[in-house]
Amino acid sequence: MSEFLVVYITAAPGEEAQRLAGALVREKLAACVNRVSGVESTYAWEGRVERDTEDLLIVKTRADLFDRLKERVRALHGYDVPEIIALPITHGSESYLEWMEACLSRAGER
Fold this sequence. Notes:
This protein is α+β, with helices and mostly antiparallel strands.
């Protein structure tokens, strides 16, 4: 079975986050994207501490699709430096992982 990842992406709330999630699933770069609204992010930017409300996208994908996913997010994202970080899925429900594999098996087709 393939190696799978959970990818975290933060985005401007609402339309941008929804657009990113839809594109990743439509383009078969993600099997599923959960959108968590109202995440408060505190971060350093250009010498200041900033605080914003964002949406957090929790993306399920295959490891071999990560580079394509990352480039697609960069192309669609409004931030100069979007958060795109990946964590390996080390264990999971076999039926869910099989479903992910089926969703992602035709990546690149639309």
